[in-house]
Amino acid sequence: MPYSMTAAQAAGRLGVKQATLYAYVSRGVLGRSKAADGRSSLFDPDEVEQLARRGRPRRPAGAVDLTVESAITELTADALRFRGLDATRLAVTRPFEEVAELLWTGDLPPTQPVPPTQPVPPTQPVPALSTPAAPFARAAARAPWQATPAALAAGRAAQAALPADTLPLERLQVIVPAMAATDSLRLQLDPSAVLAAARSLIAGMVDCLPAPPTSGSAPPRAALTDQTPATSFAPSRPGAPIAERLWSRLCGRRPAPELLRALSAALVLLADHELAASTLAARVAASVRADPYAVVGTGLGAMSGALHGGASLGAETLIAAARGPQDVSRVVGELLRRGEKIPGFGHFVYRGGDPRAVVLLGLVRRAAPKSGQLAVAEAVLAEVRRKSLPAPNIDFAVATLARVAGMVTGAGEAVFAVARTAGWIAHALEAYAGGGPLRPRAVYTGPSAIIDR
Question: Could you list the active site residues?
């Protein structure tokens, strides 16, 4: 049997800690296989022996080996799975609330089961729901996702004091601590209390955002679909599905059903992505028993970076900068001449293309095939392909959805933040369940000890 060496045996032979052993796996230095119990790992003795004889693999200056065992998300070179279920399938068959509960508890309602490990190929049509409203109705009928009146009052008042042009993500960074101050039980970290806080927190993040302007801020008429009425869209009712409520805070127009479905899919696709930078930061906070609001606040701070969740804002700006498809070559060329990267393209894990982007872009194309903003996005994709640059990632897909739907500036970041809160809470629950603080060590590169004279 090629994979017969346990993690402890492999680490002992290599003279490293098991965390370093798993870092070798994540970097492609070692292969591994799941044991019969489905949780522990087995290694090939011959491969381990070869590595032991070669010596430890060198790593780039400044690189850090930090691995955490987790049962939440599996990330491979071409797939993303939540608790063993393919995320691209979940995105088109399940509402965000159900997927969040899956991440948190490992349970998925039996209605409309999902094939476990069958991603949606790029050339395959996105599966259709039995009825467009079916998943949203199911979500609304389950456990209540509603913030308390005190939390809503505090969150709304806090963000209302900000300048009018404040981006949605910046408002969320103020809303979360304001809501926390109203929850006297926020340090109760048993699972049932954390789950209740999580539902209230995500609902409050959405419901505390201000309703968008209904005129003067929408993109050109070409950005709208023929199914989108020009009338304003009043904020959704309390208790409505999160996707519908978030739409009402990001867009002043009533959604076409297929665009609302695309937003729901985006929330699912962004719900978790293993140990991304913001999730690692959130998990470190949870490992020292920070409360769920503090965990989410930590994640929001990390995801605001331009190399993380903020990349969608750059992609939105790119699409908005072009006066039409014929202007895309100029816009992309100017970026490249300035030595800048084109935002929303390439991914260090998905070398062959981000499967999340494939699904979301497919949904947007189906929802608004005649959209002028979609035509611009397609021209960007064509220009990037012409220059043999990397494939689009989820940030570009979310930015395309935001522009086609006519959402407020920075809407993509808000979608990312609300969605990823589910993942941060899932990782917090794992951290609360056991283990001590996550405490990496630094490799000191400063001067040697200086003796005072």
Answer: 347, 395
